[in-house]
Amino acid sequence: MSELAAVDGIDASALDEAVVRLRAVLRELGSVLVAFSGGADSALLAHVAHGTLGASNCHVVTAVSPSLAGLERDLCASLAAEWGLRWTEVETDEMENAAYQRNDGERCFHCKTALMDVVGPIAHAERATVVLGVNLDDLADHRPGQRAAVEAGARFPLVEAGFTKVMVRAASRRLGLRTWDKPAAACLASRVPYGTAVSVGVLSRIERAEAALQALGFTELRVRHYEDTARIEVPTDRLGAIIDRRDEVVAAVTGVGYRYVTVDLEGLRSGNLNDALRD
User: Fold this and answer.
1) Counting CB atoms within 10 angstroms of each CB, which of 98, 114, 130, 200 has the fewest?
2) CB-count burial class (<10 Å; 0-12, 13-18, 19+) for 176
3) Average pLDDT, stretch 16-31?
């Protein structure tokens, strides 16, 4: 069963109880700075935190860098305006870190450290706690960024309130949030295999390739970067559409600089590049 299909199977009373627990966690914190990427997790957290604590005690911050697609930044801005959030953009400098560029298994640690280095002083000045939209399912994957955040004092209210990814989506739909069915959109660097250097040029090429495919109607996808080769991942039920429109797909991807265009027959698998760390 797909993640979105599973949403219908979640009991409404269980969701309401989870939201009550989330509000209790947020009230205990008192004042929060929400790291806001515009994804389903951070959107639910930002919306509930704003509704629970008010704008004076809920500062929503989006980190902007070459690893954040422009469309994702624009979504953050539109959601902030729509929900009346106290929203700020900050620039992070992970691209200046040679360890981040080297792209080993700790890349996410360096990225989240850069985030905390920027938002930490803001939170300190406001006597707020930095909170991230991490859910219970995220804890099972290789995500060293979580370790960096915890070491810097961040909290994960969705985890503390017992939210899984499906519960996040179900609660978001119940609250009327348009992000409830938003496809997951990890940072652009997650498309680059470990050991391949991350650069602004590489991230830009990935972003342009994905934007070109999204313009063709493939809204849920990844373009994995293998030097001159792009490996496209879409849900398995969309593989036929990719093949049917192969001429347009090839033109879109080669048009941004890739020489070879391939399709992963296993379909879209979030975080699958982490498999290399388990070999």
Assistant:
1) 98
2) exposed
3) 97
144 burial class (0-12, 13-18, 19+ CB within 10 angstroms)? middle
Pick from 108-122, 132-146, 240-254: least confident: 132-146
Cα 183 from Cα 71, distance rounded (Å):
13
| Residue 81 phi, psi (nearest 5) | -70, -40
pLDDT at 63 over 70: yes
Q: Is 230 helix (H, G, I), strand (E, B) or coil?
A: strand
The owner of tokens 């989240």 is 112
Helix H or strand E encompassing 52? helix 40-53
CB neighbour class for 91 (10 Å; exposed up to 12, middle 13-18, buried from 19):
exposed
pLDDT at position 279? 54
